[in-house]
Amino acid sequence: MGNIKWGRIVLWSIVGLIILVAVPILYVVVRMVILGFQMGGNPGAEAQKAFSSGPGIIVAIFLAGALSGFLGGRGAARKAEGSYLLNGVLAGVGITILFVVYSLVTGGGFSLLTLGIAALTIAAGVLGGWVGGLLCV
Questions:
Q1: Single pTM value for the model
Q2: Banded pLDDT at 137 (limits 50, 70, 90)
């Protein structure tokens, strides 16, 4: 219990939140550029709304949650002799807390989607901590 690396947990929670927010934004930007090239100019508002709220963005958000949790858990678990899994769990929980606060502040609210992303991020943090323990031994 005394080998919790709080500095690494906070750092990797912030990095994880940045990943969790940046990946879906990057997905939408790339999709809009591709759509603009396909349409030969600026796509209309209906086309933009269809791409930014379709199933692709949901998949991108879930993949970003898994990636951020795994990388955050892996990063927090490094150099935490004996408590790799705990550091990974705490990093996943930290990313989840920051994501829920970010979601509430930006007007996204708390939905079933947010709950699913939170559960996936924590599970990925556990996996990242476990892998971090395997690679550091």
A1: 0.87
A2: low
